[in-house]
Amino acid sequence: MANVNIEKAWKERLQEEFDKPYFEELIMFVKQEYAAGTCYPPGRLIFNAFNTTPFDEVKVVILGQDPYHEPGQAHGLCFSVPDGVQFPPSLRNIFQEIQSEYKDTPAPLTGSLERWAKQGVFLLNTCLSVRAHQANSHSGHGWETFTDAVIRKIANEKEGVVFMLWGAPAGKKAAFIDTTRHLVLKSAHPSPLSAYRGFFGNHHFELCNQYLKDKGKEPIQW
User: Fold this and answer.
1) Do the bridges between strand 60-64 and strand 121-125 make them parallel or antiparallel, or are there none, so unpaired?
2) What is the DSSP letter of 104?
3) Is 66 a catalytic residue?
4) Catalytic residue (choose from 66, 83, 148, 214)
5) In this predicted model, what pLDDT tens digit does every residue of 181-212 receive, in sequence order?
6) SS3 63
7) pTM of the shown model
């Protein structure tokens, strides 16, 4: 049985995944990778999204791909970087869209999205680890199976969650989310390669907050 250090409510709901053979193999692979060379995020932060946003507090899900693979960037929350780290291009575009939707929002001083995570925004990557300087290097080893199970768990056991799915890979996850129970917002990815093809002007942050208000939930301070 894999011993995963993760918030209690998440642990209870995901224990069946932790007990499956694929997850045992995944953990062995990740341990070998971290032992063999530099990987991100630091091991203690692999499950940071779960520990910062407990299951019972999830109101919004934003899905990324895999962690940033350059030094000092990844800390276990998708699109987020620690305080003092330069904003990566996708994050800069996310902030630009927020400022176009909420004209009075001051420019953020930090690229850390921990403030969102603490309001119930679950910042999940499809893969939770990566080899330094090699994007997608930990894909295909079980993380996708695990994070799909996480999305299903949220979709099946909660009501009125907003799922923000940016880019084609994230958009495919809509297949197992019941849109009569949740709001699914899909658009192009905020990467500079695709942001002008539909991320800018998607109004996802306003649509999300309107939906939360309609459900009697506190909107997110973006």
Assistant:
1) parallel
2) T
3) yes
4) 66
5) 999 999 999 999 999 999 999 999 999 999 99
6) strand
7) 0.96
